Amino acid sequence: MTESVSQDEHAAIGAALSQIGAAPAEMRIAHVSSHAFGPVRRVERFRLPNGLELLAMRDAVAPVATVETWVRVGSRFEREGKTGICHLFEHLMFGATKNRAHGQFDKLLEEAGAETNAATFLDWTHYHDAVPRDAVTLALELEADRLQNLVLGPDQVKSEKEVVANERRERVDDDVEGAISELLWSASFDKHGYRIPTIGSMEDIQGFTPEDCEAFYGTYYAPNNATLVVVGDFEWAALLGDVQRLYGPMPASEIPVEDVQPEPPQLVERRIEIEKPTATEKLAIAWKAPALGDVDHAPLAVLVEILFGGAPSRVHRALVRRAEIALDVRAWVGTFRDPSLIDGFVTAREGVTCEALLEALDAIIDDVRREAPTAAELSRAQARLELEGLQGMESASGKAEAIGFNEVVLGDPGAVFSRLDAVRRVTRSDLLRVARRWLQPQTRTIVLVRAGEEADEDDLNDEGEEDVDQDDLDDEADS
How does DSSP assign 375-396, residue by residue? Predict the structure, then answer.
């Protein structure tokens, strides 16, 4: 945004605040700060006296906007015996309110040409509405209504518990990879809340009462625990007036201090062997990883891209192409507020053991701990990560998600661009340092998955063919 455009935008904000300034002081929205979002845009931060924050950025390229609500609660906040309540609420929030019947939320937005969704993870819960520009007020009205007026009677809670229980059966209990992932994360942590599966245990899901839900809702679903993000084609006066009118009267909640249990250092490799109904053996492996805000996170992400990022990666070439002992390899570095995991997964070809996969993988890891990856590998990985980051922000929805995520996890709505800068600055020396620091055998947890009872036909079809992305093949051909 140029200086003159920035001045015009702030002039519009000032005029809008003057127009709506007649509200009582205890409900009056205020402009707090302005944050760079890349080289030309800025995110404007507003706050209500009850603690609700609004992050807004005008982007009038198309006549659409995105309205998102980020609630600062995820499965890391849960405790044993009450796991999965954050995810249960993701479902409950689409139900009836004191003002609208069940199904009205979706119906009204669909009739307006909008799309809506939600997600829950370790650090946050996130609600998303992509709307035409003339439906921004509607989206805000619906979001404000369900933030304070949700109906949590026995029928509503029972119905959504059944939905979530079925989801757990489908995605974890009856899904080999889902069950392996849950085991890997729970085994990798002794103390920290990241050991708790976001979907919760079946026993806990089935045990929730309306009283549990009312207590959780009254505590965490409050304006001072939520951030509203609006990006797209809107007018400042209308947006700020709507937010002040709809959210200003809401009472704040007393948010309990999170009882964070720091994870003690892992000094010995952990190894688990299980049997699953799978056509071939599988290997799940996790190393401890730094928090997203740690200086080592960006170079470690580049290193994992070099090792596991598609067809050009070292592990794919070695295990899938050359040795032909694996069907699929992948890994990612957790993007969380606290230290988490490098989460890796390898599927063996028929007749290949987990031990053979691990031996081959260890040889590759030893290589990058001994000698830095090449300049060409570094450049390719940086380009792929930069492209992925920029492509994710092509739309108003992508920008809104980047703003909300980085605000909740890092406290900086424009941190996605700082992240891109950090990726660009990574050197071969950085790669060697993080390989030696983080890819240590004693800090890893391994799950060896043996092929058990006969897999069904879908499993055989899924594992009998290698899934290769065409862009990855093009990258490999160019390299």
Answer: HHHHHHHHHHHHHHHHHTTSSH
For the record, the structure tokens of 384 come out as 């792929």
Q: Are 94 and 257 in contact (CB under 8 A)?
A: no
> Residue 442 carries which side chain, given as an amino acid letter?
Q
Task: Tell me the mean pLDDT in the region 325-330.
Answer: 97
For the purposes of burial, counting CB atoms within 10 Å of the CB of 253, is it exposed (0-12), middle (13-18) or buried (19 or more)?
Answer: middle
- What's this model's pTM, rounded to 2 decimal places? 0.92
Q: Which residue has the tokens 């995605």?
A: 171
Residue 426 has which token pair?
């990574």
> What is the rounded CA–CA span in Å between residue 219 and residue 82?
15
- Tell me: the pLDDT tens digits for 75-111? 999 999 999 999 999 999 999 999 999 999 999 999 9
Complete DSSP assignment for 213-271: HHHHHHHHSSGGGEEEEEEES--HHHHHHHHHHHHTTPPP--PPPP---PPPPP-S-EE
Cα(346)–Cα(364) distance, rounded to whole angstroms? 14
In whole angstroms, give the CA distance from residue 79 to residue 293: 25
Please say whether the beta carbons of 302 and 428 come within 8 A. no
Distance CA 240, CA 32 (A): 13
**Nearest 5°: CA angle at 248, between 245 and 253?**
150
- Contact, 357 vs 290, CB < 8 A? no
**Strands of the 326-333 sheet, one edge to the other:** 270-276, 444-451, 282-289, 340-348, 326-333
Residues 127 and 393: their CA atoms lie apart, in Å, by 18
Domains, the chain: 3-247 (3.30.830.10), 270-478 (3.30.830.10)
CB 68, CB 414: distance < 8 Å: no
- Length of the chain, please? 479
